[in-house]
Amino acid sequence: MNFKKSFSYTKDMIESENLFLNHLGDFANNPRLKQPPKEKLQIGNFGTLDYGMNMGEKVPVELKNRLEKKIDPEILRLNLDNIDYKTDVVIVGTGGAGLSAAIEAAENGTRVLMITKDKFGLSNTVLAQGGIQAATEPDDSPEQHFEDTFNGGHNKGKRELIEKLVYEAPQSLLWLESLGVKFKEEPIIPGGSNKKRLHTIGDNTGANIMGALGERVKQLSDKITVIRYADAQELLKDEEGAVAGIVFKQENNYKVVQSKSVILATGGSGSLYYNNMQTSNCKGSTADGLAIAYHAGAKLIDPGAIQYHPTGGAYPINLCGKLVSEKARSLGALLFNSKGEALQSKGKRDDIVSMILSEEAKGNAITTPDGNRGIWLATPLIDQINGVGTIEEKLPGLLKKYQAEQIDIRKHAILIYPIIHYHLGGIEIDTKGMSTIPNLFAVGEVSGGIDGDNRLMGNALASIVVYGRTAGREASEIAKKKEFSKKLSLDYLLENKLLVLDELTR
Description:
It is a single chain. By secondary structure, the protein is an alpha/beta fold. The protein has two domains: 3-30 and 308-420, Flavocytochrome C3, Chain A, domain 1, CATH 3.90.700; 46-305 and 424-505, FAD/NAD(P)-binding domain (3-Layer(bba) Sandwich), CATH 3.50.50. It has helices spanning 3-7, 11-21, 24-29, 61-67, 96-107, 142-152, 159-178, 205-219, 288-295, 327-330, 349-361, 380-386, 390-394, 396-403, 459-481, 502-505, and strands spanning 46-48, 58-60, 85-86, 89-92, 112-115, 132-133, 198-199, 224-227, 231-237, 243-250, 253-258, 261-264, 300-301, 306-313, 334-336, 342-343, 366-367, 373-378, 414-423, 426-428, 440-442, 447-448. The radius of gyration is 23 Å and the shape is globular.
């Protein structure tokens, strides 16, 4: 094969790749790995929040601008007596967390209204490749899962939230299986652990989970109503300050929803493109849930903590920013620099990101024909270590994605670079998934407190099910006991003029 002609790689790229690929056997048997630097590099620019429960805290400037974005004064002129929808529970977002919550609330006997600003099910969940963590093997335990998660987050996660996650993850796995999700593969060791705890379905675990959840929601269509292309604007409160509904915008018209509880499952913020970096997130991940909760007075926890995934595609241009699953490194693929030096490729994500950025700073990155920078990921090692056919069986999506670009990852390394992946912080919640505002719940990536300063792969999918189901039940129980509020209000928005366009406050 004429490598240069087929792949359009430069001469320097081919030479640096061959420095490593010519010695695959040596690295498979006894790799000599460069270790991450002791000090992590700060990524991006930060600003200080000027109002709200987290006033004075530093967050990325892109997030600050979103949280402090001035609202349309037309919202405050709405007649809130004209209610467009009335329901027990409103869920904002139709990703894995939102669907899990909707199923539980509906099966618990309450009416559910789901709104999504795009297509049904378009979310980060469907893009999740790595798998779901749950301690199910004889030599593993929830206690060990707790230690890995707590230590992986640099001891900054909230203990009570992590405990709930790890103890309920195994039964959540069984619940998914009862809905038709089939985990056929033997669990593998996720980064940051030494136990086989990651349950996968090829490299399309999230898509398979979403398929099963979506099917169950359709079966419950008599209790669950879905409104598409509805953009959540602000929360409604009652006379006691509890959340009592939401305002959304659809086709330039504002709609008023009255409910007894609200669950935010809006995902993260990667599509704010911090520091102009690529993201693995879907286009709807623009911190909407964080913003409307913060406007309403909810407390955020670690709002400035953003996780960067070590391996996003760096070349060809069509694959730039596309996630390359951590499962590849769990199966033995090693990172190596332009000098052919192998890098530590397993461990905490933030350590590996620091390793890659450090190598770039030292001049050891590879420059692509498009002018991007990257580090090699030696995917051929996967078949060399585990046997021919492993890539085809365990990473079919990744294999096909690169084959479409005329790159066979069974024979050649691929170029990667860190990308924005996950909002580690978020809305502060308790073990019921409730925020600091009564009747407002937050689940999935929009919530915070579990991961601390770093998230282990597979914990996100576990979290959406554990906390999604919990919030669904809790919101449903509130709805059963509570009457509809007599008065809906947006007056809280007037308490801080930073939120309101100038012409309304003159």
